[in-house]
Amino acid sequence: MIFRIRLRAGALLLVVCGIGAALSAGDPPSPPSLAAVVPAEDMIAQVRTFETSMKGMLADEKTYQDEAHKLAREAHALAAVGLALGLYDSEHELKAAAPALVESARKLAAAKDYAAAQAAFAEVDAALAGKAKNEAAPTTKPEKVASMGQLMKQVTFVNNRLKRGLRRLGDKTDEKARDTALLAAIAQAITYDTHEVKHDEQRDQWYRFCGEMRDAAGQLNAQIKAADKQGAERAAKRLGQSCEACHQVFRPEQK
Ligand code: HEC
């Protein structure tokens, strides 16, 4: 009996220490229920859109040379979506493929010539077909997977398209769902890239801005589907405020 009580106390102590370690200052917060932010299907649809677009840009060497910048930008964004898909709390068709998807997208983002890009894209395809496993990292690690500058370029492109599209709310709903899912994925991905945080005490602020961008993108996704014009405008405004708030603190020279 006493033995059992001691065991319990020991277990309790372990649990308490575990919580303490998990919540130590400076660690990124655990992702929220991502399924409640954006349906995984929208992120998966975005992955498929990238796959098709990349295939076109790799059709022949001339096209690749012309499109190499765009291909790299999309590859960085694909790595971010792969990471987010791996962090989903719910099951979905790319959950098991996510680590290999992230790894192959990163290779594609780093490819310097046509041959390397083709080889990396073949790995992306294999990952999406469920044929590749990342043996070194079978589960998704929350870590930096893409260049911040490249992700921000993609964010700008998608955010501008969304802003224009709000004027015709019922139009191209699938594209808007993918765009907002992509913004939420990128916001989640940059949570783990704190290289712009120069002072430790600002780390939690960084996490908060990323969370605000992610959640506002999720709200915009939901409002667009509900065809709620005012709600969508409110969410878009909140999204814009999250960009500005973060830039003000972490990119002050650009104001
Ligand atoms: C959590 C912080 C954060 C949030 C949120 C954020 N950004 Fe950024 N943004 C940055 C940082 C840091 C840079 C500088 C990146 C670099 O150049 O490496 C940047 C750079 C940029 C750039 C310049 C990219 C270039 O060409 O170099 C644009 C444009 C941009 N962000 C747009 C946006 C938009 C639009 C949003 C919101 C939808 C947004 N950002 C949200 C931190 C953030």
Describe this structure in words.
70% of the residues lie in helices and 0% in strands. By secondary structure, it is mainly alpha-helical. α4 packs antiparallel against α5 and α7 packs antiparallel against α8. The N terminus is likely disordered. Bound molecules: heme C (HEC). Heme C binds next to α7, α9 and α10. The site of heme C (HEC) has 20 residues, from α7, α9 and α10.
What's this model, at a glance?
The protein is an all-alpha fold. Helix content is 70%, strand content 0%. It is globular and about 45 Å long.
Keywords:
single chain, 255 residues, mainly alpha, Four Helix Bundle (Hemerythrin (Met), subunit A), 70% helix, 0% strand, globular, disordered N terminus, binds heme C
Distance between the termini: 67 Å
> Helix share of residues?
over 70%
Specify the overall morphology: globular
Show unreliable segments. Answer: 1-23
Give the names of the bound compounds.
heme C
Strand content: under 5%
Give the averaged pLDDT, no decimals: 90
Q: So, the CATH homologous superfamily of the largest domain?
A: Cytochrome c/b562
Named CATH topology of the largest domain: Four Helix Bundle (Hemerythrin (Met), subunit A)
Assembly annotation: single chain
Radius of gyration: 20 Å
Order of helices and strands: HHHHHHHHHH
- Largest sheet: number of strands, sense, barrel closure: none
CATH second-level architecture of the largest domain: Up-down Bundle
Which structural category fits the helices and strands?
mainly alpha
User: Tally the helices: what do you get?
Assistant: 10
Task: Let me know the number of strands.
Answer: 0
The tally of structural domains comes to 2
**The first-level CATH class name of the largest domain:** Mainly Alpha
